[in-house]
Amino acid sequence: MSGNPHNGPAVVAKRGDAPSPDTDEIRELAGAAGYHVVGELTQHRKEDPAFCLGEGKVEELAALVRETDAKTVIFDNRLGPYQTYNIGNKLPESVEVLDRFRLILEIFGQRAQTKKAQLQVELAELRYELPRAEAKSSLAKRDERPGFMGLGEYDESREQDIKARISRISDELETIEETEEHRREQRRESGFDLVALAGYTNAGKSTLLRRLAEDLDVDENEGMHPDLDTTAESENRLFTTLGTTTRRAKMGDHDALVTDTVGFISDLPHWLVESFKSTLSEVYRADLVLLVVDISDDVEEIREKLVTCHDTLYERNEAPIVTVLNKIDKVDEAELARKKETLSPLAPNPVAVSGKEGTNIDALRQRVDEELPDYQHERLVLPMTDDAMSLVSWVHDHASVDDVDYGEQVIIEFDARPSVVEQSRAKAADLAAES
């Protein structure tokens, strides 16, 4: 269902409850999908159940489509199957009608590189298509031909096929998720804290990841974690990061693996969030979440985005959240102070940085170090044996070693994550039992 960018002419349309609906984001999304926007039409009114816009406005839309020779109409609204059908009936033949979510799915489809991302996109597309297949079935029973107007041809078995495929993909994603959870546990056992970057698309998460990781080469870790990516793209375009990118970073005393995750998008329907929940699990299962915000956005827009992020995160997330106000290079000190004050109920004690210029990155590292679980101090007394030497080597790999004394016995002092301390005690007890 997902293809290459179309680069075709498109008209964007938006109905809004507020006066003069804003089309900036939908234009950006259309561009990201490869469409060339040749016109727009907006209307301030309550939703029309049959057409979304008023019927007269849809006639205007049809005229604009003919005038611009557009091949696609993109609505910055959620369209029901019957609204899509009704609007399509008013437009010139073969003009495609997309709503906001169909467009987002197209972009996701174009960007999906990994098997997991591709499965998630397909799952979201099927969940989007299911109610439309049900609508086509209903229209067919009423002897109306739903074989055009953006709903596609009617196929009697399609509904059952979609449901079966949704079930198969869900099972496959569950298996992938179990594998990834096992890998996360292995990383924790290796002495790494897991830090996730969350936030809206274009907040600068990928740039920030590169800043945090730039003082350590990920290749040091290649043998232990072959899945780690060496680079994270940072481009000024939406949805660059559909899969996840993980890099190693030093945060004070903590060795961390920082993961950049798929960006949030405003007004996402539940079925779309649900389809991408295994990507979001990188956020949900982290030890700490850095919620990245573009501080150069309008303050009301930032507030709305923070509310959406919190709603999504608090549903399943257990880790502490630190809000990072990024792109301070784009605002002056007075504006930054004003926005901090306004946003303080949603973002208490944030860290303000510029990922692009590297400003305050050390302060962010320090804050991450403070927020991550405290290391425990441990002192082990081991027999002087080959197995004990192996344990000393293991502790060096998984902890911050303060001192090793080789006498009649080996005494090692170190600081480590509680789970690593526990493991080291168990291994030491095994050695004591053997000697």
UniProtKB/TrEMBL annotation:
PROSITE patterns: G_HFLX (PS51705). Residues 193-376 form the Hflx-type G domain. It comes from the Archaea. Residues 1-22 are annotated as: Disordered. Residues 109-189 form a coiled coil. The keyword DNA-binding does not apply. GTP binds at residues 199-206, 260-263, 326-329, 354-356. Its cofactor is Mg(2+). Keywords: Coiled coil, Cytoplasm, GTP-binding, Magnesium, Metal-binding, Nucleotide-binding. Mg(2+) binds at residues 206, 241. It is found in: Cytoplasm. The keyword Nuclease does not apply. One of its GO terms (molecular function) is ribosome binding. SUPFAM superfamilies: P-loop containing nucleoside triphosphate hydrolases (SSF52540). GO terms for cellular component: cytoplasm. CDD domains: HflX. GTPase that associates with the 50S ribosomal subunit and may have a role during protein synthesis or ribosome biogenesis. Belongs to the TRAFAC class OBG-HflX-like GTPase superfamily. HflX GTPase family. Monomer. Associates with the 50S ribosomal subunit. PANTHER family: GTP-BINDING PROTEIN HFLX, GTPASE HFLX. This is GTPase HflX. The gene is hflX.
